[in-house]
Amino acid sequence: IAGITQAPTSQILAAGRRMTLRCTQDMRHNAMYWYRQDLGLGLRLIHYSNTAGTTGKGEVPDGYSVSRANTDDFPLTLASAVPSQTSVYFCASSRTGTGAEAFFGQGTRLTVV
Amino acid sequence: AQSVTQLGSHVSVSEGALVLLRCNYSSSVPPYLFWYVQYPNQGLQLLLKYTTGATLVKGINGFEAEFKKSETSFHLTKPSAHMSDAAEYFCAVRPLNSGYALNFGKGTSLLVTP
After folding, report:
1. Residues of chain B contacting residue A42, judged by C-beta atoms under 8 Å apart
2. Which pLDDT tens digit goes with each residue over B8-17?
3. Which residues contact B46 (CB under 8 A, 6 or more apart)?
């Protein structure tokens, strides 16, 4: 059982370049999320999707975009990377029940130089 | 949006001692509450959650947490710390009627000394 797969595991990216972080889940969860984790700040929600075809903005959406063409995939795109986007990015998914827990991928460590 | 506050960014305990990690949430309406653990270079793993019913919730690895509405708290405890408990711990809340995303606290790093 794979759960949530994120790719790449890590990446060094030149500022100004475009980058897509991939996320795939095999649990048939309707809801998916992207968080970034920064030291001392915990996890902050970037974007979310409650079901295929819909997306929403979280706490820190600027500079990021997402799409949800199907249930399984939820890619996160940085159109023009900046050093402040250096972070560890986590994709997660959950059922849409109110008590449902979120399941997390292993993360993508992104360094923008 | 509802938020959570974790008191103490770093907690150090001796092996065998009680572990107490504090979490308070900001609402008079009982939310849905979660504790997650993150080991180095890994994703987050659910320890336990409170939704409804019994206010003392037992989780994996001997951890438990008690929901106290009067104190707006959901502190995490373990009677006897193991070296393997050293990790980052996050409290999270799913606000009522606000979609399905979790709001996380800033985390508490637990150090266990021999």
Report:
1. 90, 104-107
2. 999 999 999 9
3. A101, A102, A103, B34, B35, B36, B59, B60
